[in-house]
Protein backbone atom coordinates (compact mmCIF):
# COMPACT_ATOMS: atom_id res chain seq x y z
CA UNK A 1 0.00 0.00 0.00
CA UNK A 2 1.24 3.42 -0.92
CA UNK A 3 0.23 6.45 1.11
CA UNK A 4 0.82 10.12 0.45
CA UNK A 5 -0.25 12.96 2.68
CA UNK A 6 0.20 16.39 4.12
CA UNK A 7 0.68 17.50 7.74
CA UNK A 8 -0.09 21.09 8.75
CA UNK A 9 -1.03 22.68 12.09
CA UNK A 10 -1.95 26.17 13.27
CA UNK A 11 1.41 27.53 14.44
CA UNK A 12 3.32 25.26 12.08
CA UNK A 13 6.16 24.39 14.40
CA UNK A 14 5.27 21.38 16.55
CA UNK A 15 2.14 19.31 15.81
CA UNK A 16 2.91 19.22 12.08
CA UNK A 17 6.19 17.44 12.59
CA UNK A 18 5.13 15.23 15.46
CA UNK A 19 2.21 14.03 13.33
CA UNK A 20 4.61 13.39 10.45
CA UNK A 21 6.90 11.27 12.61
CA UNK A 22 4.01 9.33 14.18
CA UNK A 23 2.47 8.52 10.80
CA UNK A 24 5.81 7.55 9.27
CA UNK A 25 6.53 5.23 12.19
CA UNK A 26 3.04 3.69 12.04
CA UNK A 27 3.26 3.15 8.27
CA UNK A 28 6.66 1.54 8.60
CA UNK A 29 5.31 -0.78 11.29
CA UNK A 30 2.38 -1.76 9.06
CA UNK A 31 4.70 -2.29 6.09
CA UNK A 32 3.27 0.56 3.99
CA UNK A 33 5.09 3.10 1.84
CA UNK A 34 4.46 6.64 3.00
CA UNK A 35 5.45 10.07 1.72
CA UNK A 36 4.32 13.02 3.79
CA UNK A 37 4.64 16.64 2.82
CA UNK A 38 4.81 19.18 5.65
CA UNK A 39 3.49 22.72 5.40
CA UNK A 40 4.75 24.71 8.39
CA UNK A 41 6.24 28.00 9.45
CA UNK A 42 9.36 27.17 7.47
CA UNK A 43 7.33 26.51 4.35
CA UNK A 44 6.72 23.32 2.42
CA UNK A 45 9.12 20.42 2.87
CA UNK A 46 9.24 16.98 1.36
CA UNK A 47 6.91 18.25 -1.38
CA UNK A 48 4.77 15.69 -3.20
CA UNK A 49 5.05 15.54 -6.98
CA UNK A 50 1.99 14.89 -9.19
CA UNK A 51 3.53 11.44 -9.87
CA UNK A 52 3.74 10.64 -6.15
CA UNK A 53 0.05 11.41 -5.78
CA UNK A 54 -0.99 9.58 -8.96
CA UNK A 55 0.86 6.44 -7.80
CA UNK A 56 -0.64 6.44 -4.30
CA UNK A 57 -3.55 4.29 -3.08
CA UNK A 58 -4.74 6.85 -0.58
CA UNK A 59 -3.98 10.30 0.79
CA UNK A 60 -3.98 11.05 4.52
CA UNK A 61 -4.35 14.74 5.24
CA UNK A 62 -3.50 15.47 8.89
CA UNK A 63 -4.37 19.13 8.85
CA UNK A 64 -5.78 21.79 11.18
CA UNK A 65 -5.61 24.60 8.64
CA UNK A 66 -6.24 25.16 4.95
CA UNK A 67 -3.35 23.77 2.93
CA UNK A 68 -1.75 24.84 -0.29
CA UNK A 69 -2.55 22.63 -3.26
CA UNK A 70 -5.63 20.88 -1.85
CA UNK A 71 -6.84 20.38 -5.45
CA UNK A 72 -3.95 17.98 -6.03
CA UNK A 73 -5.93 15.40 -4.05
CA UNK A 74 -9.23 15.83 -5.93
CA UNK A 75 -8.84 12.60 -7.86
CA UNK A 76 -7.56 10.33 -5.13
CA UNK A 77 -9.23 8.57 -2.19
CA UNK A 78 -8.48 10.63 0.87
CA UNK A 79 -8.92 10.76 4.60
CA UNK A 80 -8.82 14.13 6.34
CA UNK A 81 -8.16 14.24 10.09
CA UNK A 82 -6.88 16.80 12.62
CA UNK A 83 -3.20 16.48 13.56
CA UNK A 84 -4.36 15.45 17.05
CA UNK A 85 -5.78 12.20 15.67
CA UNK A 86 -2.58 11.44 13.78
CA UNK A 87 -0.61 11.98 16.99
CA UNK A 88 -2.99 10.09 19.25
CA UNK A 89 -3.88 7.08 17.11
CA UNK A 90 -1.48 6.71 14.18
CA UNK A 91 -1.80 2.90 14.08
CA UNK A 92 -5.59 3.02 14.02
CA UNK A 93 -5.39 5.52 11.20
CA UNK A 94 -3.31 3.05 9.18
CA UNK A 95 -5.89 0.31 9.80
CA UNK A 96 -8.64 2.66 8.74
CA UNK A 97 -6.75 3.59 5.56
CA UNK A 98 -6.36 -0.10 4.68
CA UNK A 99 -10.11 -0.63 5.25
CA UNK A 100 -11.04 2.31 3.07
CA UNK A 101 -8.89 1.03 0.23
CA UNK A 102 -10.32 -2.47 0.56
CA UNK A 103 -13.89 -1.17 0.47
CA UNK A 104 -13.12 0.86 -2.61
CA UNK A 105 -11.65 -2.16 -4.36
CA UNK A 106 -14.71 -4.27 -3.52
CA UNK A 107 -17.14 -1.59 -4.66
CA UNK B 1 26.63 20.69 16.16
CA UNK B 2 23.72 18.31 16.11
CA UNK B 3 20.14 19.57 15.89
CA UNK B 4 19.67 18.71 19.55
CA UNK B 5 22.77 20.57 20.74
CA UNK B 6 21.70 23.60 18.75
CA UNK B 7 18.09 23.51 19.89
CA UNK B 8 18.68 22.83 23.56
CA UNK B 9 20.29 25.45 25.74
CA UNK B 10 21.22 23.57 28.97
CA UNK B 11 20.10 26.68 30.88
CA UNK B 12 16.60 26.18 29.55
CA UNK B 13 16.30 22.63 30.90
CA UNK B 14 14.83 22.14 34.36
CA UNK B 15 15.05 18.64 35.81
CA UNK B 16 12.68 17.65 38.63
CA UNK B 17 10.89 20.97 38.76
CA UNK B 18 8.61 21.31 41.78
CA UNK B 19 6.06 23.39 39.85
CA UNK B 20 2.57 22.49 41.01
CA UNK B 21 0.44 23.74 38.14
CA UNK B 22 0.44 24.38 34.43
CA UNK B 23 0.76 28.10 35.08
CA UNK B 24 3.72 27.65 37.42
CA UNK B 25 5.67 25.47 35.04
CA UNK B 26 5.00 27.78 32.08
CA UNK B 27 6.22 30.78 34.08
CA UNK B 28 9.30 28.88 35.23
CA UNK B 29 10.24 27.84 31.68
CA UNK B 30 9.57 31.28 30.24
CA UNK B 31 11.76 32.78 32.94
CA UNK B 32 14.58 30.40 31.97
CA UNK B 33 14.20 31.41 28.32
CA UNK B 34 14.36 35.07 29.35
CA UNK B 35 17.57 34.41 31.29
CA UNK B 36 18.98 32.67 28.21
CA UNK B 37 18.20 35.80 26.19
CA UNK B 38 15.55 34.15 23.99
CA UNK B 39 12.50 35.95 25.38
CA UNK B 40 12.37 39.73 25.89
CA UNK B 41 9.01 40.07 27.64
CA UNK B 42 7.97 37.19 29.91
CA UNK B 43 4.39 38.34 30.50
CA UNK B 44 3.90 39.05 26.80
CA UNK B 45 5.10 35.62 25.76
CA UNK B 46 3.03 33.89 28.46
CA UNK B 47 -0.05 35.61 27.06
CA UNK B 48 0.72 34.34 23.55
CA UNK B 49 1.31 30.81 24.85
CA UNK B 50 -2.15 30.90 26.42
CA UNK B 51 -3.62 32.10 23.13
CA UNK B 52 -2.36 28.89 21.53
CA UNK B 53 -3.57 26.86 24.52
CA UNK B 54 -7.06 28.23 23.92
CA UNK B 55 -7.00 26.98 20.32
CA UNK B 56 -6.38 23.33 21.06
CA UNK B 57 -4.92 20.67 23.29
CA UNK B 58 -1.12 20.66 23.66
CA UNK B 59 -0.81 17.49 25.76
CA UNK B 60 0.28 14.94 23.13
CA UNK B 61 -0.24 11.87 25.31
CA UNK B 62 2.07 9.76 27.50
CA UNK B 63 2.37 12.60 30.02
CA UNK B 64 4.05 14.98 27.59
CA UNK B 65 2.88 18.44 26.60
CA UNK B 66 4.18 20.85 23.99
CA UNK B 67 2.90 24.34 24.73
CA UNK B 68 4.07 26.89 22.20
CA UNK B 69 3.50 30.41 21.09
CA UNK B 70 4.35 32.68 18.25
CA UNK B 71 5.15 36.01 19.81
CA UNK B 72 6.80 39.40 19.31
CA UNK B 73 8.19 38.80 22.80
CA UNK B 74 10.44 36.03 21.46
CA UNK B 75 13.79 37.33 20.25
CA UNK B 76 15.16 34.02 18.98
CA UNK B 77 13.37 30.70 18.36
CA UNK B 78 14.12 28.34 21.23
CA UNK B 79 12.91 25.39 23.25
CA UNK B 80 12.78 24.87 27.02
CA UNK B 81 12.11 21.61 28.86
CA UNK B 82 10.91 20.77 32.35
CA UNK B 83 10.54 17.37 33.96
CA UNK B 84 8.17 17.54 36.92
CA UNK B 85 8.42 15.72 40.25
CA UNK B 86 4.63 15.74 40.52
CA UNK B 87 2.47 15.50 37.36
CA UNK B 88 0.17 18.49 36.83
CA UNK B 89 -3.30 18.89 35.34
CA UNK B 90 -3.11 19.76 31.64
CA UNK B 91 -5.47 19.32 28.69
CA UNK B 92 -4.17 16.29 26.80
CA UNK B 93 -5.14 13.81 24.10
CA UNK B 94 -5.27 10.90 26.55
CA UNK B 95 -6.41 12.80 29.67
CA UNK B 96 -3.24 11.83 31.53
CA UNK B 97 -1.55 14.34 33.81
CA UNK B 98 1.63 15.92 32.49
CA UNK B 99 5.11 15.18 33.78
CA UNK B 100 7.20 16.51 30.86
CA UNK B 101 6.71 19.99 29.43
CA UNK B 102 8.45 21.07 26.25
CA UNK B 103 7.89 24.74 25.48
CA UNK B 104 8.52 26.07 21.98
CA UNK B 105 9.18 29.78 21.64
CA UNK B 106 8.57 30.98 18.10
CA UNK B 107 9.40 34.41 16.72
CA UNK B 108 6.60 36.46 15.24
CA UNK B 109 8.52 37.06 12.04
CA UNK B 110 10.29 34.25 10.18
CA UNK B 111 12.74 36.71 8.67
CA UNK B 112 16.29 35.88 9.68
CA UNK B 113 14.98 33.01 11.81
CA UNK B 114 14.61 30.31 9.13
CA UNK B 115 17.54 28.23 10.36
CA UNK B 116 16.37 28.27 13.95
CA UNK B 117 12.79 27.50 12.98
CA UNK B 118 13.94 24.59 10.85
CA UNK B 119 15.89 23.31 13.82
CA UNK B 120 12.80 23.55 16.05
CA UNK B 121 10.75 21.59 13.53
CA UNK B 122 13.39 18.86 13.36
CA UNK B 123 13.40 18.79 17.12
CA UNK B 124 9.60 18.54 17.22
CA UNK B 125 9.72 15.55 14.88
CA UNK B 126 11.73 13.65 17.48
CA UNK B 127 8.83 14.00 19.89
CA UNK B 128 6.82 11.74 17.62
CA UNK B 129 9.12 8.90 18.62
CA UNK B 130 7.89 7.01 21.71
CA UNK B 131 11.42 5.81 22.53
CA UNK B 132 12.58 9.42 22.87
CA UNK B 133 9.69 10.18 25.22
CA UNK B 134 10.45 7.15 27.39
CA UNK B 135 14.13 8.14 27.74
CA UNK B 136 13.06 11.69 28.49
CA UNK B 137 10.78 10.56 31.30
CA UNK B 138 13.59 8.54 32.85
CA UNK B 139 16.10 11.42 32.67
CA UNK B 140 17.45 12.57 36.03
CA UNK B 141 19.92 15.22 34.85
CA UNK B 142 20.27 17.90 32.18
CA UNK B 143 22.74 15.67 30.33
CA UNK B 144 20.30 12.76 30.35
CA UNK B 145 17.60 15.02 28.95
CA UNK B 146 19.89 16.00 26.07
CA UNK B 147 20.98 12.39 25.49
CA UNK B 148 17.31 11.31 25.32
CA UNK B 149 17.02 13.15 22.01
CA UNK B 150 20.18 11.79 20.39
UniProtKB/TrEMBL annotation, chain A:
The keyword Transport applies. Residues 1-99 form the PTS EIIB type-2 domain. GO terms for molecular function: kinase activity; protein-N(PI)-phosphohistidine-fructose phosphotransferase system transporter activity; protein-phosphocysteine-sugar phosphotransferase activity. Pfam families: PTS_IIB. GO terms for cellular component: plasma membrane. GO terms for biological process: phosphoenolpyruvate-dependent sugar phosphotransferase system. Transmembrane segments: none annotated. Keywords: Kinase, Phosphoprotein, Phosphotransferase system, Sugar transport, Transferase, Transport. InterPro entries: Bacterial_PTS_Sugar_Transport (IPR050864), PTS_EIIB-like_sf (IPR036095), PTS_EIIB_2 (IPR013011), PTS_EIIB_2/3 (IPR003501), PTS_IIB_fruc (IPR003353). It comes from the Bacteria. The keyword Transferase applies. NCBIfam families: FRU. This is Fructose-like phosphotransferase enzyme IIB component 2. The lineage of its organism: Bacteria, Bacillati, Bacillota, Bacilli, Lactobacillales.
Amino acid sequence: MKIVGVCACTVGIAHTYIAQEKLEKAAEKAGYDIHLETQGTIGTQNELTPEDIADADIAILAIDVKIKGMERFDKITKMTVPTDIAIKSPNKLMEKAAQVIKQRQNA
Amino acid sequence: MTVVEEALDPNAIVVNSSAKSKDEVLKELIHQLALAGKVSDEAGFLKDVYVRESEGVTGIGNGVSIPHGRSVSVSEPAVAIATLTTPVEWESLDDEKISIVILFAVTDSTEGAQDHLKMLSEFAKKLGDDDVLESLKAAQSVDEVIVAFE
